[in-house]
Amino acid sequence: MPIRTPKLSCSPFLKPNSTRVPVALLALLLSICDGFAEYRFLENWSPAGKGSDVGYFLDTPYRSKIDLSGLWNYTVEGGPSGTVRVPSAFDFTGTVTFERKFEITPEMVDKFQFFLVMFGTNHACEVSLNGDFITSHAGGYTSFYQSIPKNTLQVGKENVIQVVVSNRLDPRRTLPLRSNVWGWRNYGGILRDVFILAVPLLSISDVVAGSTLSADGGTATITVGATFEGTAETSGLENSGGKRSSSFGMYVELLDKITGFLVAKSQVVPLSHAGNDWDRAHAEVRVDNPKVWSPESPELYFARVFLVQGTSKDFTVIDEYDLNLGIRKLEIAGGHLKLNGRQVVLKGVVWQEDHPNFGSAMSYEELEKDVAQIKSLGANTIRFGNHPPHPYMLNLCDRYGLFAMEELPIAGAPSSVLAEEYFVELASTALREMIVRDRHHVSVLAWGVGDEFESSTPAARTFVEAMVRLARSLDNRPTYYGARLVESDNCSDLVDIAALNLHTQDLKAFKKQLEEWKAKNAGRPVILAKFGTEVKHGNRNGYSDPLSYEAQARFFMQRFDVVKSLNYDGAIIWSFNDWKGDRPSLTVTSGDPWMHSMGLVSYDREKRLAYEAVRALFRGEKFVALPMGNFAAGAPIIFVVSGLIVLIGTAYFYNANRRFREGLNRSFMNLYNFFADVRDQRIVSLIHTTLLGGIIAIATAIVASSILYHFRQSWVLDNLLSYILVSDGLKQSVVGLIRNPLTCIVYFSGFFFLLFLLMCVAVIVLSMISKAKILLYHAYVITVWSATPMLVLVPVGMILYRIMDSPIYVVPSLTLIAVLCVWVLLRLLKGISIIFDAYLLKVYVLGFLSLFCVISLGYVYLDYTQSASMYLSYMYHVMVTSQ
């Protein structure tokens, strides 16, 4: 099947991929206005998979599929309408209604019952058929199916199916939660296969298969449990009329996956039922000299489960349910993972379900290309760290020989979210759907119950206990979660595998935290579940440049030596491929704040040097020596140049203009008399006031830009910007400014001067409230001249970036600047009391009370819209306890 390029559907008012306007204010206005958003669809358009490797509901002679892929009509809520080919992903946030028609023949209605099957629809959807509501589902990456009542179908006529999809997420009431930074792209739409499954009126509804291997590996027993749906009456078959029936039975055939030869066959097991409910039936198949599955030798079998009518010697097949099986013995013994009696060391990658042409609606061809590259890497494990993958990925892992670590999309959740009953129900439903869909896959190594949530609290412990208990009731494979809090983690003893994510770039801290984690979880399997480093695409400057290809390769070589020396049970690289985030990030260095370039291959799947280095590591081969290069990091000269210009200009005006000099001296040395003169109409030049305001605004902008540039790699600042700025478009503009100091200084200078004007307006409003008669001139002068201590920042801005390079000076520097700001605020309030001729203490109280109210209102708004309080608390906890 050819790979189709994506189709772009856009609002008629905007051109796709329009040139970015280099004006921050315009960018802000555009980001706030949702009406200017681009409505972009990334089309897969692959028909529903057929055959014995399609993930879910394999094709059999007794079943039929009505493929619903292809052209659908769509309507964006509050936006355009048109046609789009499904499966596809829409790359915007909103609600989209999809609609198409299909036909059902009278013959099919008489023979079958029908189910709607959706492999993945993100995030929440409601389905109706011919105007009748059918079902709703929340969770974009877990597959689901729903029976279709026959009275909703129009036989011999066109049926209209409508699917309303919304990908809007919430910071506390959806699964996944609304992403902060470094999350995955929240594409919306019907992302994966969608079809109507027609099964016999009496059919097999579900099959659970397991295998046990004898101690010597000479024999294996396949146990198959099946459930059934429908009745003999509705099926038109003979009714036994009692609880016990010899008229219906089940048996299993086991075939070699490659040759198709019959390996073993079970006896026909009679079925029993009470009323309309059929009892679960169990059958066993014994295999002599079985072929066992392992990453090195991924041997598979093919199981065919038959529902039959008649006796064990003379019967008619009614339904067939097929699935792929593997035989292996996975256990935890001696504190390590063992496969078929031998210790296994995991060598894996985190795979991100994202592609430049398809988004998360990846085609079968692209999925297999990724798996083939991962296998060629020498890996034996894929961690699906974001969410359950396309079910076809599990088929590929079975066939290629790759362990699959599959987990819930619970990333960075605060404990207060984990404690909410509603969220626990969401997680339980998603975990059940994930395990029930994929538990027959031999490649599944373990079930994950989340990643980097706040695992140090009693609420988190209660949550993990509930998830592990549910997982073990559905399947016997190990459980895990990705921990981030090394010292304060309180839940790792509840799961079978102690998995740790590490984000530190310091090699000594990396080793220290690995040692602490292993000591804390002695006697149990421990793995490094996620670690990696960013790279700038195309950077080949040598490993002295931390963003070069060589530095990325060296990063993994050094850290794998540490992991090996500590006898860990494996390590998972973050990540195989680059991916797009859902929020713009300050800490990315790719040049695009939405693109996370941590892959061994690029977003376009171009191999980097680290791919070859990791391949050598995984295969136990030698790798070429890496060039060091001659990279030397330096502070942007713009801070020194701009500070020097402002310093020289200030000195010139101070010495050249007597009135300006006297005004500065008096405002510093005798503030009361200075503002009293202003109150008594002793004029201070507006030109001098504006000049001073401009100098202070520029000096403050230099300092602010220097501080932000210093913290440009700070995970804390990155998240804070997301909370405070709210709009992703606005944050993207601010991120661009922070990473471009010259532009930042220019725009921040304008911002701080505008802040002077806003404070001036606030003083005027305050005067109206207090019925004090002052002129706009008074408000303008006291606002600007009260800030004269900020002139201290002129020389400070020149050297602040260098000073903060030394960690011991960061806190004192920020404290000094904070004290300076408080001093300016006190001067402003004193100036207001003089101009208003009011009692100073009263002004202080009212001023700080007003400031407190403004900050509180802002905080309440952020907490209401983004649940900021719980996430800020979690951020603080991570920052304190993970150091």
Description:
The chain is of the alpha+beta class and 883 residues long. It folds into four domains: 24-199, Galactose-binding domain-like (Jelly Rolls), CATH 2.60.120; 203-330, Immunoglobulins (Immunoglobulin-like, Sandwich), CATH 2.60.40.10; 345-619, TIM Barrel, CATH 3.20.20; 653-881, no CATH class. It has 23 helices and 36 strands. The strands form nine sheets. The protein has an eight-stranded parallel barrel with strand order 27-28-29-30-31-32-33-34, surrounded by five helices. A six-stranded antiparallel sheet has the order 4-3-6-12-9-10, with no helix packed on it. Strands 17, 18, 19, 20, 22 and 23 form a six-stranded antiparallel sheet that branches. β33 (526-531), α10 and β34 form a beta-alpha-beta unit. The two termini are 50 Å apart.
Summarize the topology:
Layout: H1 24-32, E1 41-43, E2 64-67, E3 70-76, E4 81-86, E5 88-90, E6 95-103, H2 106-111, E7 112-118, E8 121-122, E9 124-129, E10 132-138, E11 144-148, E12 158-166, E13 189-190, E14 194-200, E15 203-213, E16 219-229, H3 232-235, E17 244-256, E18 262-265, E19 269-274, E20 277-278, E21 281-288, E22 301-310, E23 315-325, E24 330-333, E25 336-339, E26 342-343, E27 346-350, H4 364-376, E28 381-384, H5 391-400, E29 403-407, H6 415-418, H7 421-438, E30 444-451, H8 458-474, E31 479-483, E32 498-501, H9 507-520, E33 526-531, H10 549-565, E34 570-573, E35 579-580, E36 595-596, H11 609-619, H12 638-656, H13 658-669, H14 671-679, H15 686-710, H16 715-725, H17 728-738, H18 741-769, H19 776-785, H20 793-803, H21 810-836, H22 840-866, H23 868-881
Parallel strand pairs: 27-28, 27-34, 28-29, 29-30, 30-31, 31-32, 32-33, 33-34
Antiparallel strand pairs: 1-5, 2-14, 3-4, 3-6, 6-12, 7-11, 7-14, 8-13, 9-10, 9-12, 15-16, 16-21, 17-18, 17-19, 17-22, 19-20, 22-23, 24-25, 25-26, 35-36
Helix pairs in contact: 1-17, 4-5, 7-8, 9-10, 10-11, 12-13, 12-15, 12-20, 13-14, 14-21, 15-18, 15-19, 15-20, 16-23, 17-18, 18-19, 19-21, 21-22
